[in-house]
Automatic annotation (TrEMBL):
Catalytic reaction annotation: ATP + protein L-histidine = ADP + protein N-phospho-L-histidine
Region (Disordered): 370-411
This protein's UniProt keywords: Kinase, Membrane, Phosphoprotein, Transferase, Transmembrane, Transmembrane helix, Two-component regulatory system
Protein name: Sensor-like histidine kinase SenX3
Species the sequence originates in: Microbacterium ginsengiterrae
GO biological process: cellular response to phosphate starvation
Length: 411
């Protein structure tokens, strides 16, 4: 073998050995870094910045249960850097995930003692971050769960309420068919079918109104609304009901108050209060509608001299389909949705509903709404119209006086 071949072989062997040593050194370095990360109790680079930008509550917990880093929202749950997790369910979730290495999500209900908030429902997700650290993310799903429960209750209650009039109509229709030869019974059954149909229509309309108000686009188009016109329209719509019940409707208070909103929605809300007041008032009593301008708000109070509301019922009186006096509500055609519509309509207009009541003395429901200035020129137009009427009245009086003088009445 010549010297050139030996040199080439030596060079190749040296190259292979060099590459192998480089690979071994690189592998050793990677192993050392990986082992260091797996056993490190330090928050990975960049994790703190990510936590700072999170809206949800989140924290990084080490093997001893100590919190190393948090997001700003974590303070709402009593989680702070340098302290342990106070909630036992959170600690157990972190322990299980660290042992299994598998990310896990659980729903946890927090009581007042756990956090400085009202009882909340939280979705907690824990995942491994490195070898010894666990990332815990908390998402408040209380409102989401409440809306889902509201939806289930609404469907169940609506189905139950609709069954009664629908079932009655079916039974009465069958009764009419079997009593076809008795005109008196047919007329009686037909009248009862008509009453049930009216009740069914009223219930359907109110369900649709409530659904519209509870939707995100409940009140989309707003404009200045005259409270004078709202109250007047509400009273006029229930004048016949009041006359039939022997109840006097009276109106008083401030005038020329304006709010921003939807006139028809407010008329329906005030009308529901007036209808309830009439239904629960004895004959010969009064139902009053009063308006008060109080700084930046307008108060519309509907008062009656009826049976009043027990204290136990006041907390639930605005719930859908809730009736303080179920038997009386059914006799008067009540749907249990009127006050719920009032509540949601008022909230949609940025206001609130207040209740005062004493059993045997009556009740007062007060709608409080943000007040706005009237449309430009509105008061001026009304003043001009009023002055014009006065001038016309004076002119008419003068003409009548001249006529009397001409006829010799003052001679």
């Amino acid at each position: 073998m010549n010297p050139g071949s030996i040199a080439l072989i030596a060079l190749a062997v040296g190259l292979v050995i060099g590459v192998g040593l480089s690979a071994i050194i690189a592998w050793a370095r990677r192993s050392r870094v990986t082992n260091s990360e797996a056993t490190s109790a330090e928050v990975p680079h960049g994790a703190a910045e990510v936590l700072d930008g999170m809206d949800d509550a989140a924290c990084v917990v080490d093997a001893s249960g100590l919190v190393l880093a948090t997001s700003p929202a974590a303070a709402r749950y009593g989680i702070a850097v340098g302290a342990g997790l106070e909630n036992g369910e959170f600690r157990e979730l972190v322990r299980v995930v660290r042992a299994s290495g598998i990310a896990t999500t659980e729903t946890v209900r927090l009581s007042r003692s756990a956090v400085s908030l009202d009882p909340r429902l939280v979705s907690a997700r824990a995942s491994v971050l490195g070898g010894r650290l666990v990332l815990l993310i908390l998402r408040d799903i209380t409102e989401q769960e409440r809306l889902e429960q509201v939806r289930r209750d609404f469907v169940a209650n609506t189905s139950h309420e609709l069954k009664t009039p629908v079932g009655a109509v079916i039974l009465l229709a069958e009764a009419i068919e079997s009593a076809a030869d008795d005109p008196d019974q047919v007329r009686d059954f037909a009248a009862r079918i008509s009453a049930e149909a009216i009740r069914l229509g009223q219930l359907t309309r109110r369900i649709m109104s409530l659904s519209r108000l509870q939707a995100s686009d409940g009140v989309t188009e707003t404009e200045p609304v005259s409270i004078d016109e709202v109250v007047a329209a509400s009273i006029e719509a229930h004048a016949v009901q009041a006359e039939s019940a022997g109840v006097e409707l009276i109106r008083g208070g401030d005038r020329r108050a304006f709010v921003r909103g939807d006139a028809q929605t407010l008329i329906e809300a005030v009308g529901n209060l007036i209808a309830n007041a009439i239904a629960y008032s004895p004959a010969g009593s009064r139902v009053g509608a009063g308006v008060k301008i109080d700084g930046e708000t307008v108060e519309i109070a509907i008062s009656d001299q009826g049976i009043g509301i027990d204290e136990a019922d006041r907390e639930r009186i605005f719930e859908r389909f809730y009736r303080a006096d179920d038997a009386r509500s059914r006799r008067t055609g009540g749907t249990g949705l009127g006050l719920s519509i009032v509540k949601h309509a008022t909230q949609r207009h940025g206001g609130e509903v207040r209740l005062w009541s004493r059993p045997g003395r009556g009740s007062t429901f007060t709608i409080v709404l943000p007040r706005i200035d009237g449309p430009a020129g509105q008061d001026e137009k009304k003043a001009k119209k009023k002055n014009k009427k006065k001038k016309h009245a004076r002119k008419g009086s003068a003409t009548a006086e001249d006529a009397r003088v001409g006829n010799g009445e003052n001679a």
